[in-house]
Design brief:
Elements lengths: L1 H4 L15 H4 L3 H5 L2 H17 L8 H14 L2 H15 L2 H12 L1 H16 L3 H16 L5 H15 L2 H22 L8 H9 L2 H19 L5 H12 L1 H36 L2
Protein name: DUF2059 domain-containing protein
Organism: Roseinatronobacter domitianus
Length: 278
């Protein structure tokens, strides 16, 4: 779930009014920010994580049922449309217009494509492992070296929008929603709200560590082709009042979408485990 919620994209935007569902994917801002491709990737990330869960039964009948449930939940079109509806409701017109101007600039188009391409590349276990090795090397590099400087710029990009804290909060919310879905579906009987909160908060440091490692390795991979000057221009845009407002609206929309998804995955897991015990 963490790789789904950790998103540094500016690539999420909708009209300032709510469009009918069949028009959502044609929204100009969605196209400019490569949203259809992004949500295809995020749906694949979610399916991969859920299907590799060691708690899932490996017997043929149980496996088929679980795969069917997960494929219904991680429907990229529905995720996209729910997201831009939620985002559109959270955005001011000025923020929307500013974000579109960035997407249509030369730097914006380049950055967005680099971000999407890196996100897709990290679906590969080999590339993900290579990115983690590169992160370790950058963390160990001497001050002033190219690797150390690249990591410093990535960390600045993360810091200007408080991306670690936002993602940790979202990770905790989605974890709570997952367990709530399990309880509501009849599993984990006797677990009360306070018990679930204790269970979730016990994961905070692990979530923070995973978010930090993933974000830094992702940014290092994505922004390799950018010059230091272009990277600084991007950071300046991200740190601007409208850029930051857009980022926060984006996370509110992600919270809406992925809390619902996590709750549904939890309910599906409860049903799967109940079926497996029969």
């Amino acid at each position: 779930m963490l790789r789904i919620v950790i998103v540094a994209f500016w690539g999420v935007m909708a009209a300032s009014f709510i469009l009918p569902a069949h028009h959502l994917r044609a929204d100009s801002l969605s196209d400019a920010y490569l949203l259809p491709e992004l949500f295809d990737i995020m749906a694949e990330e979610g399916r991969m994580a859920a299907l590799s869960d060691p708690a899932v039964s490996q017997n043929a009948a149980g496996r088929v049922g679980w795969e069917s449930a997960i494929n219904r939940i991680y429907d990229a079109d529905r995720m996209h449309d729910d997201f831009i509806t939620a985002l559109g409701a959270a955005l001011r017109p000025a923020t929307r217009a500013d974000a579109l101007r960035f997407a249509q600039s030369d730097l914006g188009r380049r950055v967005l494509q680099l971000e999407v391409s890196a996100r897709r590349a990290l679906l590969s276990e080999e590339i993900d492992a290579s990115a983690r090795i590169a992160l370790t090397a950058a963390r160990e590099a001497p001050d002033g070296s190219p690797r150390a400087d690249a990591l410093a710029r990535a960390r600045e990009r993360i810091a200007v929008n408080d991306l670690i804290e936002l993602n940790v909060s979202l990770g905790l919310n989605t974890s709570l929603a997952y367990y709530t879905g399990m309880v509501d579906a009849g599993w984990m009987a006797g677990m009360a709200g306070a018990d679930l909160l204790t269970l979730v908060w016990a994961q905070e440091q692990a979530i923070r560590d995973d978010v930090t490692d993933w974000a830094e390795s992702y940014f290092l991979l994505a922004y390799q082709p950018l010059s230091p000057e272009d990277m600084q221009s991007y950071i300046d845009y991200a740190a601007s009042p409208e850029g930051d407002a857009f980022n926060r609206a984006m996370f509110r929309a992600f919270d809406s979408v992925f809390v619902d998804i996590s709750r549904r995955v939890g309910a599906a897991m409860a049903a799967h485990m109940q079926q497996d015990t029969l």
